[in-house]
């Protein structure tokens, strides 16, 4: 027989009674010196860390990326250096606007965040299931997210807030078209694509930079929920996507995605009339075809949801040699915002938590802070430069090639190009008649509670994208298109 394991306090002291508090007599009040009671209650009060401001409701799993094609002509990152090479990873899916207790089947973009544990450090892709986003400039991100959360007056979700903001933000039209299409409510997390969304960079061994977009194509195929079924599931099984993902992995039905890239040279980007760093637009796959990289597989469920999913912290600032950023304004803003959110939500030493810690050796001069539990650098110096040969030193060979910058510092109008509609219109025309009808019906239902002023302003954008798109929505709202300015 196994030896009995003794219950202890967090400090290791044996617990003699875990059923009864200490009291002054059988019926007397409890005593403050019952340190076991105080510790249990105090820890319980602190068990919930602040939820994420966005992407609060999430599911995650461990897996691997197996390289299937040689892309070393574009990048020197070691995880890509050999076909067949495997890199462990953790992937977190999420809805964007809902709280932790919200339903998995809401109409909402889905987060698709991947942490690759490479031998050169952690590399994070913090993406979505859509290739574009609602806004171009991070200065508008807090405003946008406020409209997706609760009205400060009623504490209710507000269609008026959402559409009022969108009607003043024409660049959102492409993402709106995606969100209200049949792909706006995926059937769980396994049957949807993932995207890095932003433009990133790859740098090869010769120091040549290429611009790149990352795609993850579901090998399970695409499945979506119709609104009626999504509403039913929200009532009977609000954790539908979490249950589906966990159950599939548990029974050995491991979900897989084909990882691909689109590549654009710096010369092509410079000569391009359309801004390749605009996250509200996509790159033509005819002009920049998908190049296969590898296969991502999820094959292990977390042992503890809080430790591995809730405490997982992704940030686009987590990069490795051979992979870099771009002038994408939203990406530049996220480089600060994501890491800062984790410092607030989890703590300054969040990167030491097992799910976030690199799997390779790491050494730096960061010290102290709450919850430091890795030895805190021991007796080694906490400053640099220093005279100690065994202390970590900078390595010039990992420097990125210089980026050419130009222009005067100013607040440039990110809407100056005026093309907010061509990509949304092209997407609408790619849809089948049935998909177009569903898209129009979904938008009509969402816009009915909104004021006439906002409806008219937003209708002008739909009409500019495609006449049939706009007039279909106008008819559903009972508005004569001639009224639209």
UniProtKB/TrEMBL annotation:
Protein name (database record): Catalase
GO cellular component: cytoplasm
Disordered: region residues: 1-23, 367-394
Coiled-coil residues: none
Pfam families, per database record: Catalase, Catalase-rel
Species, as recorded: Stutzerimonas zhaodongensis
CDD domains the record matches: catalase_clade_3
Residues engaged in binding heme: 338
């Amino acid at each position: 027989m196994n030896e009995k394991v003794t219950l202890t306090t967090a400090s290791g002291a044996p617990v003699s009674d875990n059923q009864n508090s200490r009291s002054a007599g059988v019926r007397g009040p409890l005593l403050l010196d019952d340190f076991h009671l105080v510790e249990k209650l105090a820890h319980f009060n602190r068990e919930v860390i602040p939820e994420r401001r966005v992407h609060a409701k999430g599911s995650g799993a461990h897996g691997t990326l197996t390289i299937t094609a040689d892309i070393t002509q574009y990048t020197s990152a070691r995880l890509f250096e050999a076909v067949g090479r495997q890199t462990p990873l953790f992937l977190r899916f999420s809805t964007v606007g809902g709280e932790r207790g919200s339903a998995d089947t809401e109409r909402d973009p889905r987060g698709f965040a991947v942490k690759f544990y490479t031998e050169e450090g952690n590399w994070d892709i913090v993406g979505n299931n859509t290739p574009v986003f609602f806004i171009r400039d991070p200065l508008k991100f807090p405003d946008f997210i406020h409209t997706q959360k609760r009205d400060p007056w009623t504490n209710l979700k507000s269609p008026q807030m959402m559409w009022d903001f969108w009607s003043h933000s024409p660049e959102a039209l492409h993402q709106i078209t995606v969100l209200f299409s049949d792909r706006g409510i995926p059937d769980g997390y396994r049957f949807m694509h993932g995207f890095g969304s932003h433009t990133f960079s790859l740098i090869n061994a010769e120091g040549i930079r290429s611009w790149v977009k990352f795609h993850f194509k579901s090998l399970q195929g695409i499945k979506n929920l119709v609104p009626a079924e999504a509403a039913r599931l929200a009532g009977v099984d609000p954790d539908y996507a979490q249950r589906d993902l966990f159950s599939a992995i548990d029974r050995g039905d491991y979900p897989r995605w084909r990882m691909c890239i689109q590549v654009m040279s710096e010369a092509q980007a410079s000569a391009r009339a359309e801004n390749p760093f605009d996250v509200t637009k996509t790159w033509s796959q005819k002009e920049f075809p998908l190049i296969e990289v590898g296969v991502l597989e999820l094959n292990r469920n977390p042992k503890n949801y809080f430790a591995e999913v809730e405490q997982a912290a992704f940030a686009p600032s987590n990069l490795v040699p051979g992979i870099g950023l771009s002038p994408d304004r939203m990406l530049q803003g996220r480089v600060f915002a994501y890491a800062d959110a984790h410092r607030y939500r989890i703590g300054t030493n969040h990167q030491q938590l097992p799910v976030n810690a690199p799997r390779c050796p790491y050494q730096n001069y960061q010290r102290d802070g709450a919850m430091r539990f890795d030895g805190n650098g021991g007796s080694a110096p906490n400053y640099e430069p220093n005279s100690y040969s065994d202390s970590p030193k900078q390595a010039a060979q990992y420097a990125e090639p210089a980026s050419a910058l130009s222009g005067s510092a100013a607040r440039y109008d990110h809407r100056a190009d005026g093309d907010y509609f061509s990509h949304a219109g092209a997407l609408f025309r790619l849809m089948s008649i049935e998909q177009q009808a569903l898209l129009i019906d979904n938008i009509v239902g969402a816009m009915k509670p909104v004021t006439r002023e906002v409806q008219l302003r937003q209708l002008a954008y739909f009409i500019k994208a495609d006449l049939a798109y706009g007039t279909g929505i106008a008819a559903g709202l009972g508005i004569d298109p001639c009224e639209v300015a």
